[in-house]
Amino acid sequence: MQNLIQGKMFRAPRAWLSIFLCVAAGAPAFEPEKIHGQSGVSTEYQIKAAFLFHFAQFVEWPSADSTNADGTFVIGVLGENPFGGALDEIVRGESISNRKITVQYSRSAEDLKNCRIVFVSKSEKARLPRILGELSGKNLLTVGECDGFDQCGGVVDFYLEDDKVHFEINPAAAAREHLKISSQLFRLGKIVKTAPTG
Amino acid sequence: MPFKNPSLKRKLVGIIFLTSLSVLLLTCAMLFYYEIHSYRQTTARDLSTTADIIAANSAAILIFDDKNLAGQILSGLRADPEITAAAFFDKNGKLFARYPADSPASALPDSPGPDGIRFQTAQLTLCKPVIQGQSRVGTLFLQENLNLFRHLKVYGFVLFLILVGSGIVALFLSNFFQRQISEPLLNLAEVAKTVSRQKDYSVRASKTSDDELGNLTEAFNSMLNQIQTGHSALFKSEEQLRIVADLASVYLCQFDREHRYKFANRAYAERYGFEPPQMIGRRISDVLGTAAYEAIRPYIDEAFTGKKAEFEVEIMYATLGARWIHVIFMPEQNLEGRVVGVVAVINDISLRKGEEQELKRARDEALNASRAKDDFLAALSHELRTPLNPVLLVASDAASNPQLPQETRADFDMIRRNVELEARLIDDLLDLTRITRGKLSLDRRLLDVRGVLQEAIATVRMDAEIKQITLASDLRAGQHMVFGDGVRLQQVFWNVLKNAVKFTPEGGKITVKTFEKDGALCIEIIDTGIGMNSEELDRVFDAFSQGDHAEGGSHRFGGLGLGLAISRMLVELHSGSIHAASEGRGQGSTFLIQLPLAPTVRKNGGLPSAKNPAQTLPSTPSAKAGAGPARILLVEDHEPTRTALTHLLVRRHYEVATAASLLEARALAGKQNFDVLISDIGLPDGSGYDLMTELREHHGLKGIALTGYGMEQDVARSQKSGFVAHLTKPVRMESLDNALAAIVDGKSNLISLKTLKTLKQ
């Protein structure tokens, strides 16, 4: 009768939950209201600045060159700075894996080779393929905001829908750059299928 | 408890069953508690796991603010119906997403509580922080129904089934195992019941095990053994007792407080025509009859008070008639001491009583015959003496009358002596008869033998002087006090002395000696007489044997030879002895009388025998009186005696009036005054005793009895009725003179009747 007192047999297992959570996916419908209306910069860029900072939390870089020369985690902004001081404000005092986050603004892709995340501003739309070509193979998470950014080999691309900021992820580009993107991020963004641009 | 008086079996089953059930219940309760605990723990752990999984995958949702996705994730909880509510709160504690999506906001807390699991009455809530890197990005809230009742309902049902099943098994097992204990006990109880019901002590309980119950069985059997032994011994002894009681010739019975028989032996039962068992329960009064029952009733009541009653009674049985019985009633007490019955032992003594009465009658007849004989002897003695009386009076007077010539006086003296001898013979015969028949009683008192001896010597002195025999006395004993009858001892001495005088020739000598020897007073009387040969010595104290003293004939000395025989008897009555000794014929004789000395010596005791009235010679008392002659009333029906006495008294100058009957005497006493009454006892119209009593009371007369009745009781009666002197006929004139002199001289108080009595000689 001892076995009769085991409570387990009356319980239903909950293995289903993790399975459900892994496969669950849906159309992203982000509503970044809370970030709107900050210090002269458009709500859109305030959200995008926050997203940039948060991407760092859900991506793993290859360990060999994960460190900059001064030991900081650098987010680069290439081209015109649309964030104003919003990005600096967000990362101030923040760190990733015990590394301080800094922001570097530049017009030259060459300057931003030591960054981990590089935001390519709309202003650089014309020379996207060249820029992405220069940045390719540098294990950089490239984030853009122009149509076709994915097609040019960018990893993450912001787009607007219903006045909300959404993003697309190109897994092939991420894999090329040896970046591991968290599944959580995959669940939030749209997956883009592209032919590898080599 | 549910059982108060059920059988041992049921008790044992109950005990085992209840014990098992209690243990089961306790176990179930513990299992129940453990299950509740375990259920809560498991539920909490599962919920926690769920929360962990969701939280781990929700950081990005909260960070990137995707409410849609948050709702989708939460809606996945639908798969678990127990989770009733869930929600995400952002890092500011604001509700971010909820589940179910359409639930009202009131179903959820406004803000997340502290982290961790909280058990509430019917639910479990959990708040789990959602962490991204180092920072908290929000909180996951889960709420699950703790459906303890539904869960435990199943569990309880299972437990109930187990309980019922176990109970049945326990009942079955207890029923099986209790036999181990109950069966030997019930077996014992059954045997005990058999023993007590059928009184069969031969059954035994069978031993089934070697434990305490086995020991109990053994002890029980051994107890039965002892009871059986004791019982059979008791039965045997009861049987023996019954046989003995039935065979006993006495009547035995036992009855209770209601006087009903509890037991009766065969003899008793058959006496009343029953068999012994039929007696039990019958009433005594029904068996014996009312009259007999009432006769013994007081004794029964006495026995019931606890006292043994023993009595002889003649009772009238309804069936048997009058019977004498000897009865013993013995109370029978119980342990508390209460008398619960009486045991009766009865003997029919009718036969013995009859014999006793027969014996009594025979004795009475014999006594009557003896009394008649005594009366005859007394009458004979009286009748024989009476004619001698006037002869002796006249002859003794004439013999000592100095006015008569010597030869005439000698002739009268011869007549006197022979009359005296005649009287003596009559007395001796009477004495002998009385002593032989044990009728003689001594009047013993402390006594000086010297006085008695001197008196005896004095009585023979005259005879001795006539034969010119010398009488010497040598009374040298240190003391002479004995405890004896003076009159009878004087008779003894007188007999011996008389004998000595008789057998001693003229000019001989008689010596009287006294001495002490071995605490006895010895009186020796030695004569120089004819003596005795050895053959005569042997027979000297036998009655009617007088020695053939002379070839010339045995009657030379006269007498019947009774004196010595009487003397020996009298001495022996005094615890003394008398012996005769002689050297042979012609050598004289010696008589030795031994009397035990009185242990206490009272010198100079005022004893009544010291007087020697014989020394007081006859005088003319009337001359002395000075106040004229004494007046005598003489009452005598024997005419010759009356005439002779009157003649002699008148000659002595007394004034004499005579009467022949009480009537005449009373008439005279009424007319004249008298000083002295001289009266016969046997008178035609009454007794002299009555006369004496009468005259003493009315006229103050002193009297002298003059009678043929000479026995002790006559003397005593004489004294009682007031006579101061008792003279037995025939009377010598000297004796009467002395008695008269004593009365007239006023010395009557000092005169012993018995002493006076001796004066008849």
Poorly predicted runs of chain B are 549-558, 601-626, 747-761
Beta-strand content estimate of chain B: 15-25%
Give the class of chain B from helix and strand content and strand pairing: alpha+beta
Gyration radius of chain B, rounded: 68 Å
What is the mean pLDDT of chain A?
Answer: 76
Biggest interface found: A-B, 34 and 36 residues
Mean pLDDT of chain B: 82
Number of helices of chain B: 23
The global form of chain B is rod-shaped
Query: Widest sheet of chain A: strand order?
Result: 3-4-2-5-6-7-8-10
The tally of helices of chain A reads 6
Number of strands of chain B: 24
Concise summary:
The complex is a heterodimer of chains A (198) and B (761). Chain A is α/β, with parallel strands linked by helices and 198 residues long.
Fold and architecture overview:
The complex is a heterodimer of chains A (198) and B (761). Chain A is 26% helix and 21% strand. Chain A has helices at residues 15-23, 43-58, 86-91, 128-135, 171-176, 183-188, and strands at 59-60, 73-78, 95-96, 99-106, 117-120, 141-144, 156-161, 164-169, 180-181, 190-191. In chain A, the strands form two sheets. In chain A, strands 3-4-2-5-6-7-8-10 form an eight-stranded mixed β-sheet, sandwiched between helices. Chain A is globular. With 761 residues, chain B is an alpha+beta fold. Chain B is built from 23 helices and 24 strands. In chain B, α4 packs parallel to α5 (212-247). Chain B starts with 7 loop residues before the first helix and ends with a helix. Residues 549-558, 601-626 and 747-761 of chain B have low confidence and may be disordered. The interface between A and B is medium-sized, with 34 and 36 residues.
